[in-house]
Amino acid sequence: MSHHTVLRAHAPAAVPGRTHTSAPTALRTTPRAAVVDDIAEVVRLRSLSFEGTGAHRGGNPSADGGWRDVLAAALHGQIASDTAQVLVVDGGSGLAAFGIGSIEQRLPGPYLATGRVGLVIGIATDPVYRWHGLGLAILRDLLAWFRERGADRVDPLASVEGEPLRRELGFADYCRHAPDWCP
Predict the structure, then answer these.
(1) Are 87 and 33 in contact (CB under 8 A)?
(2) pTM of the prediction?
(3) Which of 24, 48, 129, 138 could form a disulfide with 96 if both were Cys (CB 3.0 to 4.6 A apart)?
């Protein structure tokens, strides 16, 4: 399942509108399953994924940051769950990246034979380590995990920045029959 790759620092290919940084030399890009001791770092990375995006994701944003405590409590349960996978990549001091996926059981039908749908809930990379393949390594391992659990489909719940990753791995747009609703 894991792709054992070592990334050597080099000048990454230019991507218009992106500022590239050099990752520390010999950064290991192999994702591993998160443990309880990783929760504070996963919360930090998840928080970074919302900073500066200006993206409205529906609902009303939490003004007090209390969602971080709720996230930490939820991660305790997700790390031990059979229906969720939290993957991390270690950095020099702390985590370089994380990703989380879950399996949702829906009603089976002609396009969902088992009713099992994989959800890529999020992938976030510390700015120091961005554009060095960590998100791709995590997404590949999540896709393998979904396949092992018999998911009929995987829905990527991700940012606009993640679109090139999704396209590279074969994700296609499909028509949704109903818009999202936020109470």
Answers:
(1) yes
(2) 0.76
(3) 129
